[in-house]
Write a structure and sequence with these properties.
The protein is α+β, with helices and mostly antiparallel strands and 221 residues long. It contains 3 helices and 10 strands; from the N terminus they run E-E-E-E-E-E-H-H-E-E-E-E-H. The chain folds into 2 domains: 16-185, no CATH class; 191-221. The chain is globular.
């Protein structure tokens, strides 16, 4: 009796340019090999133990009523996420900002830069087209300034960030309040065979099936 072996080809996940929806609230950017949280304002619903203030502008160590926080609190929130092993990972971080970035119209805090694609948020905005108004695969993208984990080398009290309604990249004092978005380096799923590899696998199985079938026919004759 011939045993037929079937191949199961999974459907591709929804994609937008270089972005792939991995499910479970995670969006993979294959250009940069990083994974974003799908919820760009997760802190509003999951502060990971941090206190939430009743006002929009919280005291240090708290999250505001609209989920704004200073740079130090944003890093504390990331630490809480890692302690909770959120989504199975403990190496979440704030996005990085490349400096210098030849693609950016400005290399310092002033003048503010636009068109920046070297930074992770700049790439998301200027290459993938993700803005507060056109959020694509994401949800809850805020219109204001998002913290980067990169500090301004010449001004230790300032950290880089990007505004998601204008694409302006610049610096803000760490004690000011802004939004935070977590990112994970690398993909969150195991690699799958390329289509050409899958085709070769399928061809090999077909040859094997034909060989077994022919051998059994010869034994029966």
């Amino acid at each position: 009796m011939v045993v037929l072996v079937g191949l199961s080809f999974g459907l591709a996940a929804p994609a937008l340019g270089s972005l792939i929806d991995r499910g479970n609230g995670l969006i993979y950017d294959q250009d940069l090999n990083i994974t974003w949280l799908q919820d760009a304002n997760l802190v509003a619903t999951n502060p990971f133990g941090l206190m939430q203030s009743a006002t929009e502008f919280p005291t240090p160590g708290q999250i505001g009523s609209t989920a704004l926080m200073n740079w130090f609190t944003a890093n504390t929130w990331i630490a809480g996420m890692n302690a909770a092993n959120y989504k199975g990972f403990n190496d979440w971080r704030l996005p990085t900002t490349a400096q210098p970035d030849a693609s950016c119209s400005g290399q310092t805090i002033q003048p503010l830069g636009t068109g920046c694609i070297g930074s992770e948020m700049g790439h998301l905005f200027n290459v993938d087209g993700i803005t507060a108004a056109t959020s694509g695969l994401f949800s809850n993208v805020q219109i204001g300034f998002y913290w980067s984990g990169t500090e301004v080398a010449t001004f230790p009290d300032v950290a880089w960030g990007l505004v998601f309604d204008s694409g302006i990249q610049g610096g803000s004092f760490k004690i000011a309040v802004a939004s935070a978005w977590a990112v994970h380096s690398g993909d969150v799923v195991a690699s799958v065979p390329e289509p050409s590899t899958m085709l070769l696998m399928g061809t090999g199985l077909l040859v094997l099936i034909l060989y077994v079938w022919r051998r059994e026919r010869l034994h029966q004759s």
